[in-house]
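Handover notes (outgoing to incoming on-call)

Open items:
1. Large ribosomal subunit protein uL18: sequence verified, structure written out, both below. Nothing else pending on this one.
2. Nothing else urgent.
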Amino acid sequence: MASTKLELFQKRRMRVRNKLKAVNEGKLRLSVHRSSKNISVQLIDDARGVTLASASTLEKDLGLVGKNNVEAAAKIGATIAERAKAAGVTEAYFDRGGFLFHGKIKALADAARENGLTI
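Large ribosomal subunit protein uL18 structure tokens:
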């Protein structure tokens, strides 16, 4: 039976998330979503089911609306690190979802690390 691209992506996303949750119990999750036009990231406390901080290229005050490139991803990574610090968070685990860890996703993670968030 042939699987669609979306089904394969969702299987890969859940495989990554479940492995990370098993290893990083009690830590906060830094979850990334990338579309064809935007990129967004959330800092989630799975124990309470609460999003503590988020950042996206859709936020008008960041001036990145509709930009989905490596520079925009790096700016989003720096922004989420600053917002995490403001929320009192210094450590999280990086949930890349079903996306490969290169390009925009890697730039976002590196920028978050450079700005003080331990991933």
